[in-house]
Amino acid sequence: MSSAGTAWQTAELQALDRSHYLHPFTDFKALGEKGTRVITRAEGVHLWDSDGVRLLDAMSGLWCVNIGYGRKELAEAAYRQMLELPYYNSFFQTAHPPAIELAGLLAEVTPAHLNRVFYTGSGSEANDTVVRMVRRYWDLQGQPDKTVIISRHNAYHGSTMAGASLGGMAPMHAQGGLPIPDIEHIDQPYWFREGGDLSPEAFGLKVAGELESRIQALGVDRVAAFIAEPIQGAGGVIVPPDSYWPEISRICDRHGILLVADEVICGFGRTGKWFGSDYYGIKPDLMPIAKGLSSGYLPIGGVMVSDRVADCLVDAGGEFFHGYTYSGHPASCAVALANIRILQNEGIIEQVDTDTGPYLQARWRELGDHPLVGEARGVGFLGAVELVESKNPVTFFSESGRVGGLCRDHCFANGLVMRAVGDTMIIAPPLVMTRSDIDELVEKARLCLDLTAKELGML
Ligand code: PXG
User: Fold this and answer.
1) Mind listing the pLDDT tens digit for each residue in 254-269?
2) Backbone dihedral region of 41: left (phi > 0), alpha (psi from -120 to 50 degrees) or beta?
3) Cα 121 to ligand 1 centroid, rounded to whole Å
4) CA 413/CA 54 separation, integer angstroms
5) Ligand 1 centroid distance, CA of 358 (Å)
6) 3.10.310.10, 3.30.365.10, 3.90.1150.10, 3.40.50.2000: which CATH number matches 37-70+347-455?
7) Which residue has a Cα nearest atom 16 of ligand 1?
8) What is the tens place of the pLDDT at every residue in 282-316?
9) pTM of the entire structure?
């Protein structure tokens, strides 16, 4: 099919899709009635659909296309690797050059105390690996009862049984009897919605303090680890108050429990630093990665393992009965290598840190003056606006998600991909957006906020 496509081809694809394709996180019935939007090609920061309509992609696909679309170096790296060695495993004391070379490069770009990687195929598998590895670590330490992992409500850590259990998404837990045993959840640092009368700093300390109370309630001899995204992504780009991470780090250190920073979204430049852990000065014991690792060009994830944990696993000896067919897939590793070299050689992360990130944040915050917007926030190339019924005092819409959905539909109709999480509109653009792309993004976002407000009779 040609990249431009035709209306006829779109209808044909939609019919096939309706008959045979069950999409992730989708109301199958509603989508079948509406018809899926078929994306056929992309270049830079833009997508085209099967009717030839151009969209500015403010979500980097699904928070992953950090270097933007259309980079031939990645396609060529995959092509060369597939001709040379398309597949081999790393189970039985074997390996191949791209996986080995990538392990070395990851040790270089991640925080200094993280020097080993366990490869997976995705972020969810990375978090399953976290559960297995955390429990193996404490077992080897002679504390097999330390099995509980504490996470947070409204966290997202993936969709496998362990990933969804670590996550704090109530609707996911409700479908299938989750969480699995020994996963606990505390409150999230979501000041705008849950902070009440407290200042952000006081609220940050309060919710971090819940970690300590929970450790004490369960007994430190039971608690293995705490897991969190440096900035919650899928939960609605929830930027914690500055007081939060230092207090969490202090509590983990004080009780000797492992700290897991899920960098699946925050990693590889999203915050303007290589990792969210660099941005907040967090020293994680384990660090799940995926998405921006290959800029989404091929599936790959992993867990970066600190010297504290790795030395224990290595020194103890004995087999770790865990791994995936595609752990360290050669083509994915070759693509990740090419991706990281582009991030390094083109100074993309520094540019987000010092130029385009501050510019995006300044322009994004201008939306805070819009009558529909209760708060505009963000860090680096992450942003959110909270849609509210009234601003002073803040009141929220009664049926969460309805107004967010209206706004999202206006965005699509006006050539902008922005995601709605309930009534929070969020962005995570490709890190290569220029100042003029950012201007286009903010202008389109404002137009769509206006259209939404008009539809609600607020303008
Ligand atoms: N951890 C975090 C922090 C994530 O955001 C995963 C783990 C799981 O990764 P995989 O590769 O297994 O999907 C994620 C994934 C959304 C959305 O709606 C977000 C994700 C995935 C799908 C949808 O924002 N994040």
Assistant:
1) 999 999 999 999 999 9
2) beta
3) 13
4) 10
5) 25
6) 3.90.1150.10
7) 234
8) 999 999 999 999 999 999 999 999 999 999 999 99
9) 0.98
